[in-house]
Amino acid sequence: MFDEIKPLSEWGLGIKRPFIIAGPCSCETEEQITETALRLKDSGITALRAGIWKPRTRPGMFEGIGKEGLGWLVSAGKASGLPTAVEVANAQHVEDALHAGVDILWIGARTTVNPFSVQEVADSLKGVDVPVLVKNPLNPDLQLWLGGLERVYAAGIKRLGAIHRGFSSYERTEYRNKPMWELPIEMRRRHPMIPIITDPSHICGRRTMISAAAQTAFDLDFDGLMIESHRDPANAWSDADQQVTPEEVKEIVSGLVIRSSALAHDTEDALAVLRGQIDRIDNYLLELMGERMEVARRIGDVKREKGVTILQARRWDQIVRDRIEKGVQKELTDTFIAELMEAIHQESIRHQNRVMNKAD
Ligand code: PEP
Ligand code: MN
């Protein structure tokens, strides 16, 4: 799967790494998209975006200017010398966007969750040679994201990439959509040929956080960004809090440190020693985990014999507090310790469950 995906350097349209798409969340008026595009022209970006059909969470919000805006977007692209990109969610969108001369299509997060919709879009792309980017689904499901990419790839699209835009959750966090970098990292591990660009705007939800998330994307060796930019962000008709001015895009892009993943010999040597240490420490951690689970099983034996429950809430609460306090002294974050202990506890419970419920 994915063997024939073209590297960005072969996509044409002036696309190369870093592949940076910027432009407004929504196309609002011809003046708005044209002015935004012209001000973005020299900010170091690769392509101009704008939403024409907007999948809004609640009805009654601005749902996009519709088909009419496609012509404005394409003209703004020509005026600024930038190829254009638009979100498509069904076959009609694909037909209208291609007919208007849009250069790049992307499938939004609310569409990727629905295999029927992705398949409809994929079917409408058969026999068409256009770059397509697939955003991650709203929920952190790597299989569903890959499934979307597979459907489009199977339709014959070879200029195919992924957009990491974060994952929604009920819990309130500093992010609008938690980045959960482990998902795109795992995608990269399994399918290194799929270009991945990060959308820090929808991840952060607030403009002040965007450049840090953008830098993280490049430190993880991803290939580019999608940044929402508006001529007058505060008065945008959608996603006002997260849009930046074209001048701010230029600042963000020029401030990026783009490191190479290729290792020179001396770097390789320096890393080899440290990586050896990491391997030894990890092996030691695994041995310790094995030992810890053995003790947990012995505790399970005692609990079984005495007829007491696996979960002893007070003891567990003491453990979590104590380990967080100690971890913080070692410069580990409290969230990390809490999550680590949670994972260890889950595994202990699995072991005790087996011991306590085994047949006599
Ligand atoms: C967008 O890019 O404007 C958009 C709707 O994003 P997402 O699909 O990531 O929510
Ligand atoms: Mn948006």
Order of helices and strands: EHEHEHEHHEHEHEHHEHHHH
Ligand inventory reads: phosphoenolpyruvate, manganese (II) ion
| Number of strand segments | 8
What's the pLDDT, averaged over the residues? 96
Blueprint of the fold:
Blueprint lengths: L18 E5 L6 H11 L6 E3 L18 H13 L3 E4 L3 H10 L3 E4 L1 H4 L2 H10 L7 E4 L6 H13 L5 E5 L17 H9 L5 E3 L1 H5 L5 H10 L4 E5 L17 H10 L9 H42 L6 H17 L4 H23 L4
Parallel strand pairs: 1-2, 1-8, 2-3, 3-4, 4-5, 5-6, 6-7, 7-8
Bound molecules: phosphoenolpyruvate and manganese (II) ion.
Folded structure, characterized:
By secondary structure, this protein is α/β, with parallel strands linked by helices. The chain contains 13 helices and 8 strands. The chain has an 8-stranded parallel beta barrel with strand order 1-2-3-4-5-6-7-8, surrounded by 5 helices. Helix 1 (30-40) links the parallel strand 1 and strand 2 (47-49). The chain starts with 18 loop residues before the first strand and ends with a helix. The relative contact order is 0.10. The chain binds phosphoenolpyruvate and manganese (II) ion. Phosphoenolpyruvate (PEP) binds at residues 25, 51, 55, 87, 108-110, 135, 165, 199, 202.
